[in-house]
Amino acid sequence: MSLQTAGIHHITAFAGDPQKNVDFYAGVLGLRLVKKTINFDAPDVYHLYFGDKQGSPGTIITFFPTRGARRGEIGGGQVGITTYVVPTGALAFWEERLNSLDITFNKTARFGENYLQLEDSDGLRVELVEREVGALSEWSFGGIPTDKAIKGFGGAVLFSANAAKTVNVLVNTLGLTKVDDDGEYARFKATGEIGNIIDVPLKNIPMGVGGAGTVHHIAWRAKDFEEHKQWQQEATKNGYHTTDIIDRQYFNAIYFREGGGILFEIATDPPGFARDEAPESLGETLMLPAWYEQHRAAIEANLLPIQVREVGAKK
């Protein structure tokens, strides 16, 4: 196969209260809010992006937070668990941090690796795993030192309504390699250092219901615009109905739904999040596409104020 994705570009999910969303991903997990914009199709809703210092592909989780949003149900056709990778030896730090913040977590293991699994304020499932690969974070916030901070995605656990079809698209369209199988999960690996390990439960999972606390789609990396066009052709050749190429300001995107019900996106690494903000001030200003700029005052008045803030130990 000539095309192989490096792994996850970003993951996009639904959320409820936007301040609680910021408090968890920036305050608890220590990620950087790298872009504050709006849902281009619904300008009364934020679109928030959290990642590493630069907002690098493979580190970005994005949310459409709407206060009062209906809770979804995690199930088939979704990313069931979003995996974050931390440096080797850092899980003890995270156990202590989560305990100090009175955040419930579970310990589990998969393919010889230990995980801390927890939920955000809307019930979205995330987990932390130690791995040697991947550069250390250059972003430090809330008392999390860079040698303990999240490096980016470790990968994801895909909940599929048809595991065989999801396995097929991972291997035969996206170019991942199957590296393990324990009878309960199959593990696949992409070519990148982060966002590259995908686990698929081998038992089909009934379809979930979208809403706050669930993932809308998972995006895979295309290294540039030319390769992106090739990905569109490859997906179409393999029988998937892809969208046209869509300009999302910070990357170009195509979408298709794979046979297990999960909405896949393929997104370009360029141009990135510094195209409209200085790197040192990412996420500080509400950024609007040109066609909404004339409505800025009304849009800002309609959005709930949010702030990135440290979260302290709960009494």
Automatic annotation (TrEMBL):
Domain of life: Bacteria
Pfam short name (any one): Glyoxalase
Residue ranges constituting the VOC domain according to the UniProt record: 7-131, 152-269
InterPro entries: Extradiol_RC_dioxygenase (IPR052537), Glyas_Bleomycin-R_OHBP_Dase (IPR029068), Glyas_Fos-R_dOase_dom (IPR004360), VOC_core (IPR037523)
Sequence intervals crossing the membrane: none
Name recorded for this polypeptide: Glyoxalase family protein
